Amino acid sequence: MAALILPSDWIKNWDKSGKNEFFQFFQDLAGKPSSNEFVKDLQTALYELCWHVIQGSLKVDVAAGLLADVLELRDDMPSILADVFCILDIETGCLEEKHKRDHFTQLVGTCLICVPDGMLKERLDPETLESLGLIKQAQQFNQKIVKIKTKLFYKQQKFNLLREENEGYAKLITELGQDLSGNLTSHLVLENIKSLIGCFNLDPNRVLDIILEVYECRSEHDEFFIPLIKSYMCEHQTLCHMLGFKFKFHQEPNGETPSSLYHIAAALLQHNLIALEDLYVHLLPLDSSIVEEHKREILEAKQIARKLTMVLVPSEKTEDKEKEKEEEKNEKPPDNQKLGLLEALLRIGDWQHAQSIMDQMPAFYATSHKAIAIALCQLLHLIMEPLYRRAAVPKGAKGSLMMPLWSKQALRPAESFDDLSRGVFTMLCYLGPHLSHDPILFAKIVRLGKSFMKEYQSESRQDTKDRMDSLLSCFLSIADQVLLPSLSLMECNACMSEELWGFFKLFPYQHRYRLYGQWKNETYGNHPLLVKIKAQTVDRAKYIMKRLTKENVKPSGRQIGKLSHSNPTILFDYILSQIQWYDNLITPVVDSLKYLTSLNYDVLAYCIIEALANPEKEKMKHDDTTISSWLQSLASLCGAVFRKYPIELAGLLQYVTNQLKAGKSFDLLILKEVVQKMAGIEITDEMTVEQLEAMTGGEQLKAEGGYFGQIRNTKKSSQRLKDALLDHELALPLCLLMAQQRNGVVFSEGGEKHLKLVGKLYDQCHDTLVQFGGFLASNLSTEDYIKRVPSVDVLCNQLHTPHDAAFFLSRPMYAHQILSKYDELKKAEKGNRQQQKVHKYIAACEQIMAPVHEAVVSLHLPKVWDDLRPQFYATFWSLTMYDLAVPHNAYDREVNKLKMQIKAIDENTEMPLNKKKKEKERCTALQDKLQEEEKKQLEHVQRVLHRLKLEKDNWLLAKSTKNETITKFLQLCIFPRCVFSAIDAVYCARFVELVHQQKTPNFCTLLCYDRVFSDIIYTVASCTENESRRYGRFLCCMLETVTRWHSDRAVYEKECGNYPGFLTIFRASGFDGGNKADQLDYENFRHVAHKWHYKLTKASVHCLETGEYTHIRNILIVLTKILPWYPKVLNLGQALECRVHKICQEEKEKRPDLYALAMGYSGQLKGRKVHMVPENEFHHKEQPVRSATPGTLQNGPGNTGKPAVTAAASTGKAEEGAVEDSDKSKDKSQAVQKTASKNSTAANKVNNSNGSSTPNSTKGSKEKEDKEKTTKEKKEKKDKNPGSTPEAKAGGKDKQKEEKPTDSKEKTPKADKDKRKDDKKEEKSKIDGKSAEKEWSKERDVSNDSKTKEGSKVEKSAGAGSMKSLVPRSEGVESERAEQKRRKLDTHSSPSHSSAVKVSMA
Predict the structure, then answer these.
(1) Residue 706 has pLDDT above 70, yes or no
(2) Contact present, 474 and 482 (Cβ < 8 Å)
(3) CB count, 10 Å around CB of 1161?
(4) Are strands 1063-1067 and 1075-1079 parallel, antiparallel or unpaired?
(5) Least buried of 138, 325, 648, 1086, by fewest C-beta within 10 Å?
(6) Which among 791, 953, 952, 793 has a CA at the least distance from the CA of 857?
(7) Which residue stretches does the UniProt record annotate as biased composition, category Polar residues (predicted)?
């Protein structure tokens, strides 16, 4: 032993310091690096410690405790201690002192817990082990050792069953393992193998097995081993069994099949050395297990999706996540030999066998494994490489070239697009959504598709195009089954989305939308992965939408953009569903969509259309009177999104067109919003006077002052809308369908829907037509407009467009044509004089309008043109307010606004100088534009007025009567157009005034105004809500003119005094009789104006008392519109106020909208009271004069004490000419009706003018008696007045002798009486016993025979026509009821404009 290294003092002072010093010493040794010297020192120290124990100088238990602590210092310490015990075992065995041996045994026994038994058994003697109890008997242990050693080292294995020589196999392995890079061939090696088999008597099957083993180890040398195996001349079945045995060897629970085995199996399959069906049965797992696994995956995906849609408590969510993590850790994918073989086949390019294996499995099961998908992608890369390099590489792109497959059995690379159908399309279909693993291949396929589409679109030969159609359908299928699903699985790849849009935008939108529909509604249900992705996308979309506000649009928009790159359909579907519920999301959502790609915008357009067309959604609210809020929200979104972002509009426009074709007008709301937002064209009947005035100017003035919101920067968006309409030829079809749908709403859908909803749909259809037509007129070039809009006769006769809409569409065309022709004439003959310009303009008008004059003849019956000239008709319909007057005030107002803006910019010290400069330049340029536009319009209006002045003499022929002329004018011109738009309403009123100012022959202004104001019930009742506003605006403008004339004698004398429109004409007989014309003086005009106010009041009260929703709503709207000029007379205003107050009380609980209208009007009416005047101030009421002549008019029974009307000749003149023809026709119809009424037995069942019935038979008989009594009294009156010979009716059947002009003056009382009779006939208000106290005072005069009633009818003066007191009249009420029944046919005519005019003129 070496010198002692432990001092003896440590043992002596063990308890005090020796133990610690000893342990510290061991710690120092343990800290040294492992080396031979260290181990030697450690062994020496342990040896000395153990020797002190053996000698007895240290107790066993004390040493054992120290050793236990020391053994923990290093991992190899037990082995070192075991070595020490081995030395001591030998030494103590040789000692004679038995107690030392016992001490050693005790020490080792106490250390058994520290030193493993195996180490001790290796190093101690069997006797020592037996004494320690580690073995039972030392002798048996020695025998066992001998046996094991013999078996391991001396016994030979019997593996040469067929007596082969081992040397032969060694030489075989050497032969196969030699270097193959030289000139060594498989044929040469085969000869050597044959020699070895023969020489060493080797088993051929064992040799084949060794060849396969070596091939497996050297699998890169296919070109050597495949010919070798082919030449070996073995049976295919034997080879297949050997491979199968190798695969089965690796089918242990934790076994893993090496990739080299898959490779040699794939190579043998590719060269047809084995059959797939023979090998397939040896592979695991079974097909049934694969199917079960696939079903389980689908079920798990659906469960995950269900969990994501469920509402969970946060604690449950964390638990689920932890479970999922644990499952992921524990799950180890089992070895699938079929997939491994499939991957190897794909790696070497054997698509035929790979396809056969994939066909045995569920769809997309194989490619759902990443390794398979990547292998298939790599194969596709290699096949497509040549074609991609030739046709699809972008300019400037540099790609790494790929080496083609060496095997001749592999698929040939594609050189042309036709080659793609040989296998590429099929592979892609098997790959499906898992193309997402290779974005580069994705981009290559998309670029190839792009290149093909360009070739397809540029191909002109039809036969080639037909051949390419099959390829086109293949590309569409790939887009549907591969590209879009793969995009869903990609991680937010915006570049791929843009790349795909470059391909998709070459398809028409119909193809694209079909693809999006498949993607959204079917693709996500076909793949387990996509089921999960869909659920995750919806979950994420919910998270974002919950937090989206106006304040966080930018970050939320980025999140939406990120989510939309992969799964736009799912995201947009959820966003749209939220918008349909919460319309306040529209603005933040629209702002947040700015991070979308072009493809996403296109998908958004499709999703919007799909949401609009959802058959499960009702487009009406439950009350069936209003359009659903979800549709209104989507329409608003459409307008905002399509304006702000470059989204294709064709699909949406075609959808609206198709809906109109199907007779559905709800979706016109979308078109209205789109045009309003994109073109900045608003359609509203709530325009202010200033706005309406601005709308009569040029385009610049309209943009600045015509709309509520200043919609800027619409140039690009309106251009996009225009291009979409023109490219897809939708401009004219949309106009025609809207024009036809207006009537379709009423006649096709009206019976099924609530009247209120029908009116709203009609208004929406009409407003959208006006808005859309205005957009086309202002945005289409002259050539485009003329090319697309046919002439009026074609529009009306062939395309069945209503006349008002036809002229509305063609009006801009005629204006364009006239201006073009005018410019052409100016260039042809240069002349600067204004007179020459006017003549050229008139010549241009004649050339352009001459065909129009001929065309309009076919629109109406020939009889119409007896009174109106086609030239007048066409002129009326072709002009606009822009042509009649210049809105100087509007121009000045806008210019002043701009000046104020410039001033404010100058005073703004915070604005940067460059911005100041830009803003000032903008305002100045706008100001110049407005002034230039005003000047241009002024010149235009002067030319138009000059033209009208020359034309006016040929406008009206009046071959029948002036009354008939006015009837046709109102029926065919004024009434259809005044309800078309607010500007048209103003135009109609101004046109009537213009015709009057031009002193047009045969136009009776007085009669025209009289017919407009006399009975508005029919027109009001037949209007929709918006039409009522326009009609009210028309009446307001007419009343404005009347009020201007009424308010000042000087104005009246200047504008009406010597005008033919205010002549009163008395005719003796026929057309050729002597005429006397007299002018209506100012005071009599005031009487007539009062009569018109009275008539308006009577009609208004009638409508308010009917109880009909439409009547009440419309008359309240009209009254609100005409409030500035009516009522002016205090008692008429009080009568109206009383009726409106009653409406407020009755409708408060029943119909809130009527209540709101009535309350609004009532408040405004009270505010206007201060402007009302008593009747005697409005017109001069003459004192009653009792005439000595028998013809003096009595006020009738019950009117004693009331003033009678004086027989002023001037009054007779004033009224006679105005209503002469009207009364004649009324008398005829009245006489016929009276005759019919006498013979009627069911008169008590007939509705009166208010629509109420009187079924009481006793009342009917009483009315009959009253009627006979009244008739008898009037006969007696007539007999008492022999001086009142009736005047001849102009154009009547019985011509009578001409009377002197003075006769009419003498018979003024008779005329007054007839006028009062006329007033009573026109009254249609409901009369019964309860409401008799509210009746207007009436009188009737019924002539004895219709032939004797052809005398001259003279309107009573306004004094006679003033509203009577509302004192109840007991007498005459029943006779009036009977009279109303006899007029039932007149009052219940069709409520169209034309019918209304005819009835009111009857």
Answers:
(1) no
(2) no
(3) 21
(4) antiparallel
(5) 325
(6) 793
(7) 1230-1246
Share of the chain above pLDDT 90, in %: 21
Closest CA to 78 of 38, 44, 114: 114
Query: What is the residue whose two structure tokens read 């090696």?
Result: 189
Average pLDDT of the segment spanning 482-503: 91
Burial state string for 604-640 with b = 16 or more CB within 10 A and e = fewer than 16: bbbbbbbbbeeeeeeebeeeebebbebbbbbbbbbbb
DSSP-assigned states of every residue in 1255-1287: --HHHHHHHHHHHHHHHHHHHHHHHH-TT-PPP
The per-residue pLDDT for 488 is 92
User: Quick one: tokens of 1226?
Assistant: 């009324």
Distances (CA, A) of 400 to 271, 379, 397, 926, 1185: 30, 16, 10, 58, 116
Report how far residue 283's alpha carbon sits from residue 279's, in angstroms, rounded to the nearest whole number: 7
Report helix, strand and coil shares of the chain as percent, to nearest 5. 70, 0, 30
Local structure of residue 560 (DSSP, 8 states): H
What spatial distance separates the first Cα and last Cα of the chain, rounded to whole Å?
151
- The pLDDT of residue 1218 is 36
| 303, amino acid identity | Q
- Phi/psi for 1356 (5° steps) reads -70, 155
Tokens standing for residue 1203: 């003033």
3-state class of 538 per DSSP? helix
Contact 427, 373 (CB under 8 A): no
Please give the pLDDT value at position 303.
83
**The predicted structure's pLDDT at residue 707:** 64
3-state secondary structure of 1076: strand
pTM above 0.85, yes or no: no
Instruction: Please tell me which of 103-117, 293-307, 417-431, 753-767 the model is most confident about, judged by mean pLDDT.
Output: 417-431
Is the pLDDT confidence value at 1232 over 70?
Answer: no
Residues 253, 258, 261, 265, Cα dihedral to 10°: 70
Task: From residue 735, give the alpha-carbon distance in Å to each of 775, 806, 1081.
Answer: 11, 9, 49
Looking at the chain, how many residues does it have? 1402
CA nearest to 1396, candidates 1039, 978, 1094, 1091: 978
Q: How far apart are CA 1108 and CA 1022, in angstroms?
A: 12
pLDDT band at residue 742 using 50, 70 and 90 as cut-offs: confident
Q: CA nearest 670: which of 684, 658, 654, 652?
A: 652
CA-based nearest residue to 414, from 451, 457, 373: 451
Average pLDDT over residues 1094-1122: 91
User: What is the C-alpha to C-alpha distance for residues 1177 and 131, in angstroms, rounded to an integer?
Assistant: 148
Rounded Cα–Cα distance for residues 541 and 1195 (Å)? 81
Packed helices 598-612 and 629-644: angle between N→C axes, nearest 10 degrees: 160
Q: According to DSSP H, which parts of 695-833 are helical?
A: 699-705, 715-727, 731-747, 755-779, 782-788, 792-793, 803-828
Please give the Cα distance from 722 to 709 (Å, whole number): 22
Rg (CA), the chain: 54
Query: Which residues lie closer than 8 Å to 296 by C-beta, 6 or more apart?
Result: none
Contact present, 986 and 1037 (Cβ < 8 Å): yes
| Residue 1196 scores a pLDDT above 50 | no
Do residues 413 and 383 lie in contact, with contact meaning Cβ atoms separated by under 8 Å? yes
Task: Determine the distance from the C-alpha atom of residue 352 to the mean position of all C-alpha atoms in its chain, rounded to a whole number.
Answer: 47
971: left (phi over 0), alpha (psi -120 to 50) or beta: alpha
Give mean pLDDT, residues 179-186: 83
Q: Which amino acid is at 1085?
A: F
The DSSP result for 599-663, as a single string, is HHHHHHHHHHHHHHT-TTS-SB-TTSSSB-HHHHHHHHHHHHHHHHS----HHHHHHHHHHHHTT
| Contact between residue 350 and residue 409 where contact means Cβ atoms under 8 Å apart | yes
Distance of CA 182 to the CA centre of its chain: 73
For residue 956 the two structure tokens come to 């009206």
